Each structure stands twice: as structure tokens, then as C-alpha cells.
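Re: that chain you flagged

S.,

Sorry for the slow reply, it's been a week of failed gels. I finally had a moment to sit down with the sequence you sent. For the record, here it is as I used it:
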Amino acid sequence: MSATLSSHILDTHLGTPAADIAVRLHRVPDSGDTILLAHGTTNHDGRVTPDAWQFESSIDDTERQLDTGRYTVTFDTQAYFDAQQLTAFYPQVVIDFVIKDASHYHVPLLLSAHGYSTYRGS
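Prediction finished late last night. Pasting the C-alpha cells below so you have them in one place:
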């Protein structure tokens, strides 16, 4: 059994979804060295759906399972704000979270040029 993961970014300054943001998913094993599992890009609605993750070619089928453990999602916010010609305080946002069971995990990001917040969504 494995969990599924999605994300959604809303630009709170513009009041719109944040499209075309590069997102990376890492597993954080007990050793602490992160392992890049997958990457994606937010769609026109600011979402990365569970089926939109592109797993790295070096990752085998068992590693593609989102089992219990610690993970990070990294959002490349610098490129997004550069495209809008805005100076941003955070060049990237890293959200560190734990998967505890095989349910669906949704990691939303509320974003502006000088701040962000997140929570466990549904």
C-alpha cells in the first residue's frame, strides 16, 4: 500500500492559481540525505495531481511507492516571480512532511512575494 500526493499553489497577491512552478519531491531517509524521487510542474490551475509526478529514471518501482516516512516538496518560486518581474524574498519553498499511512496527502501552498503558508489539505 502506498500514499498518493498532490499539491496546489495559490498566489495570494494576485488571487490566482500559480501556474508553471517547478516542483520536486524528495524522500528523507533516516540518514538525512535526501533522495530525489520525482518532479513536476503546476498546471494552469496551480496543481500537481498524483498522476502528474514524473519519477526519476534511476528510481525503481518499489521506490515509486510513497510509503510511510519523511518527504520534502520543493517549489521553485524564484523562477515564478522572475517571470512576473517581481522581487521575491524566498527563492524556493521547502515543505517537510511525514506520510503516516496509505491515504491521499495534499500539500497546498499559499504564496506571495514576501511570505507563504501551508497546511495539510484534503
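What I noticed first: The radius of gyration is 14 Å.

Talk soon,
D.
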